[in-house]
Amino acid sequence: MKKYWLIFLLSVLFFSCNKERKNNQTDDYRAENTLNLVESVDTFELILDALRKKNIPADYLILDDVKNAILTYADYRMDDLDYYVFINSSGNEVVFNANDTNFELIIPKKHTETEKFLPSEVHEIRIGENIPNPRYLNKKFQVVWRTIQLNRNPQNEIEYYYQEYDEIIYLKPITP
Length: 176
Prior knowledge:
6-stranded mixed β-sheet, elongated, alpha+beta, two-stranded antiparallel ribbon
């Protein structure tokens, strides 16, 4: 009977030591595969990487890489295309034809002939014309955009006008 107890104790001791060794191996494995960052992470670079993968319309290609700059929102114009007008630090206009962000840079079409932004301010507009959103006018933004190009012949009027265009894909207000 004493032999069985001795064998039992030795087996318990053996398995408990073996389990501890496996746990140490697992911890070593985790330590080897853990990313220890000594330098700070550039979050804007991570944002740019994600924006490079942002979906594009079917049958379009992205030309070049995404571009970014700090720009001031100056105007919105509408002709055959939408024109979101920004001004760079040199005073030159940078114009985009699409806005794929959550910022409402324009006020949608209205059915009245006047728009009131402030009690003291009334703007005459043509019926159904979009106007720049006064909330964002003359505000600085970190703007990221890309150039999109149709990779086949246009099939309709919209594709004809939008064969190649610059699209805003990220806006971040710059606070003074």
